[in-house]
Amino acid sequence: MKLVFKHSRRARARTRTRSASMTLFALSVMGICLSPAPASATPLLGSDLASFTVLGGATVTNVPTSSIVGNVGVWSSGGANAITGFNSSPGVAVSDPQVTGGTVQAGTMTGSPNAMTAQQQLITAITNLGSLGPGTLEPADLAGLTLLPGVYTVPAGTTNLSGTLTLDGNGNANAAWVFQMPSTLITSPDSVVTVVNTGAGAGVYWNVGSSATIGTSTTFAGNILALDSITMNTSATDFCGRALAESGAVTLQQNSLSGTCSGLAAGSGGLSAGLSGGLDVASSGLVSLLPYASVPEPSTLSLLMIGLILVGFAARTRKQKPEAT
């Protein structure tokens, strides 16, 4: 009887060990399944596209003197005629006194970054923005609103901004705002977009279904990605953002645009203290808005099911006790 008892006790110990091992393995599998995919942190704008502050699908027209921080370019068959108001040469990246931290490219194909690759990445970025869905429906005129990070749909109107819109990051340095504009984006003269309580990882994106018109002396913030054209009226500024047109023209009239937001003093250009050069390429803030960021891939789902089965089997084995003879 003593030998049988010792054997039974050793059997129970082995059973507990196997059960604990299987549970640990199953939980490890589940941990891998539920961990965020590294690819989900990929910036929305590709590297070539992010280097362009002004990108036209057909032409870029400028009434000097503008001030652009970043590349200016067009990828079209127009060659040098596709860009006016800046120094340009077909197939060659050239400098211009109105452009700092970048060059002017008219149909440039070689090297990186280049306008052709940037246009391809623009199409991808617009598609990805559209995949975020409509989010929260807002009135056509955003004036007077304070909006936390999120996805918003703004219907067409005679104006989409007649006063001041405040974007409050609520202390999140990686805050992100996406505005789905099914038709047009229009701002009234002297309107303002101000961004507060965020940091260098922030991102603001205006996904425009047709054309954007930024009114005279508007102080704007964010990246405008338009399916058709973008017009910046006289003295309109976008201190932290870009004008990126997929198929149409970008028209500038003595404007200031900075894609990198570098060198901006706190409070300048409608940006309040707490924003230290962001809004260009969103990082983790935008990832949290992506609906597919939390949906496992098919292979991940399979591993998850295996983990759940193993946990259940381990729990069942733990309940069973070896019988004594």
Outline the structure in words.
- Mean pLDDT is 78; it is low at 1-6, 24-41, 263-278, 280-285 and 291-304.
- It is built from five helices and 24 strands.
- The strands form four sheets. It has a ten-stranded mixed β-sheet with strand order 6-8-4-1-22-19-16-13-11-9. It has a six-stranded parallel β-sheet with strand order 5-2-23-20-17-14, with no helix packed on it.
- With 325 residues, the protein is of the alpha/beta class.
- The longest helix is centred in the first third of the chain and has 33 residues, at 2-34.
- The protein has helices at 2-34, 47-50, 115-130, 284-287, 298-319; strands at 52-56, 60-63, 67-69, 71-74, 83-84, 93-94, 99-100, 104-106, 136-137, 146-147, 150-153, 164-168, 176-181, 185-186, 192-196, 203-208, 212-214, 219-220, 223-226, 230-232, 237-238, 243-245, 250-253, 256-258.
- It starts with a helix and ends in a 6-residue tail after the last helix.
- It folds into two domains: 2-37 and 297-319, no CATH class; 47-286, no CATH class.
Chart the SSEs and their pairings.
Layout: H1 2-34, H2 47-50, E1 52-56, E2 60-63, E3 67-69, E4 71-74, E5 83-84, E6 93-94, E7 99-100, E8 104-106, H3 115-130, E9 136-137, E10 146-147, E11 150-153, E12 164-168, E13 176-181, E14 185-186, E15 192-196, E16 203-208, E17 212-214, E18 219-220, E19 223-226, E20 230-232, E21 237-238, E22 243-245, E23 250-253, E24 256-258, H4 284-287, H5 298-319
Parallel strand pairs: 1-4, 1-22, 2-5, 2-23, 3-7, 3-24, 4-8, 9-11, 10-12, 11-13, 12-15, 13-16, 14-17, 16-19, 17-20, 18-21, 19-22, 20-23, 21-24
Antiparallel strand pairs: 6-8
